[in-house]
Specification:
Order of helices and strands: HEEEHEEHEHEHEHEHEHHHHHEEEEEH
CATH architecture of the domain at 132-285: 3-Layer(aba) Sandwich
Helix content: 25-40%
Strand content: 15-25%
Oligomer: single chain
Number of strands: 15
């Protein structure tokens, strides 16, 4: 039976194969020999394409060169086959980690079920083009704010544990650890040794940074690598690695290459160290310097305290020498004298006021006495009243035998009319009082006459 069976081919006791992939079922599947040629035919219709990536696992066999073209950001790769001549004419610069662009056509090997690319042209990506790409990426990341100074965090003064990402073999680890422990012997390190150049560098360094960032005891992370060529340091300008460091919650120190090397990792890190040796000096304080600072600070504090005490003592001595403190009563004596003077003045003023008021009261009393009817009675006058209390002002108001009440200065007595005086005769008429009374009231004196009489008394 022929192996080139078409869609309508059948086998003994079987139904015809489905024409379309969507028509296949568990009862009517396509055999591998039927699917593989279809995939091969479909892929052969694809045109050639230019593909960019990093060279990995480059091998030569006879006139052919085999390599893996790996993506610089993600863990994806393609198998590429080209002529050995096309690779060798690029010179010694081509090798694992080289950045190339290939013009290749996809091929599907039906027997093995593998997809590869056959390249007819290979070109190295020049340093100028790489620099231009890095500058473009730098502008994009800066516009996003990943390099802003406000995002950078201050390193802890004395971290207990320092995370270190470095090469598996190299001097970077030794430089960082030795210099840090020379400054502070108690510092501990969590070291992650990874590939720091080539196609695997980005993935391994990013994974190590994330692992250390997830450890709560790690207080600062150092990414260190020794010097190298521009191509060797390209992974530390990779966008994926830069974004991984920007997402860290732990402060990151970048110590890549030498002073003149400035990968993008330096811009996104919280602190840039010129070399791994410098990083070891920046992450921990120098115990000798700190002790010297403590001694100096203690001396300054003591000197400041002594000077302050001296100033306060001088102020106390100055105030104690003042008269107000040597004789505290001096300040009070003047006020006491003033209080006494004011008291004496008040007494004199009050006494004078009392004397004046007393004299005025006596004068008013004299006036009252002079104007009072009692004063008139004191001078020998009397008030004659009828039984109903009315005063008798005229002899014609009484008759012989009327009972009267006579009020004098020191009391009163009863009397009876036995006669009245005739105003025109010199002798009393029958029926007058036992004591002769005048039917005319005495002349009324003025207040001035009363006062003069009172003064004579």
């Amino acid at each position: 039976m022929s192996t080139d069976e078409g869609p309508e081919a059948t086998t003994a006791g079987r139904l015809p194969l489905p024409e379309r992939a969507g028509e296949t079922t568990p009862e009517r599947p396509w055999p591998v020999r039927h699917l593989a040629p279809k995939i091969e035919a479909y892929i052969q219709r694809m045109p050639p394409v230019w593909v960019e990536g990093q060279v990995l696992n480059l091998k030569f066999w006879n006139s052919l060169a085999f390599l893996t073209l790996r993506d610089t950001d993600l863990d994806m790769s393609l198998s590429v086959t080209t002529s050995a001549h096309a690779m060798r004419r690029l010179g010694s610069k081509v090798g694992d980690g080289a950045h190339v662009v290939v013009h290749a056509r996809p091929q599907f090997h039906a027997k093995r079920g593998e997809l590869s690319f056959a390249a007819d042209e290979v070109r190295l990506v020049g340093i100028g083009e790489l620099l231009a790409r890095i500058e473009h990426l730098k502008g994009v990341l800066a516009a996003e704010g990943l390099f802003a100074a406000s995002r950078k965090r201050t390193l802890p003064f004395l971290p207990a544990v320092v995370g270190l990402v470095c090469a598996q073999q190299g001097d970077a680890e030794h430089d960082v650890v030795t210099n840090a422990r020379a400054r502070w012997a108690g510092v501990r390190f969590e070291v992650r040794r990874v590939t720091v150049q080539g196609p695997r560098a980005v993935g391994e360094v990013s994974a190590a940074v994330r692992e250390l960032d997830a450890m709560p005891q790690v207080e600062v992370i150092v990414v260190a690598r020794g010097g190298g060529s521009f191509e060797d340091l390209l992974p530390f300008s990779n966008e994926a690695l830069v974004r991984a460091v920007a997402a860290c919650r732990t402060p990151v120190v970048s110590a890549i290459g030498h002073e003149q090397d400035t990968p993008l990792l330096d811009l996104v890190a919280d602190l840039r160290a010129s070399t791994p040796t410098d990083a070891g000096k920046r992450v921990v304080p120098d115990v000798t310097e700190e002790r010297a600072r403590l001694v100096q600070a203690r001396q300054r504090a003591r000197a400041a305290l002594v000077a302050r005490l001296a100033r306060e003592q001088a102020a106390v001595d100055h105030w104690r020498s003042r008269p107000v403190l040597t004789a505290p009563g001096t300040l009070v004596d003047a006020h006491e004298q003033r209080v006494h003077a004011l008291r004496d003045s008040a007494r004199r003023t009050f006494g004078a006021a009392l004397e004046h008021a007393s004299a005025r009261v006596e004068g008013l009393a004299a006036q009252v006495r002079a104007l009072s009817p009692a004063g008139t009675l004191e001078r020998g006058y009397a008030v004659v009243q009828r039984p109903d209390g009315r005063a008798v002002r005229d002899p014609d108001e009484v008759a012989d035998g009327d009972a009267l009440r006579v009020r004098v200065a020191h009391g009163a007595f009863a009397a009876r009319v036995v006669g009245t005086d005739d105003p025109g005769a010199g002798t009393p008429r029958a029926g007058s009082l036992g004591a002769r009374t005048s039917g005319r009231a005495p002349a009324r004196r003025s207040p001035d006459d009363a006062r003069r009489q009172t003064g004579r008394r």
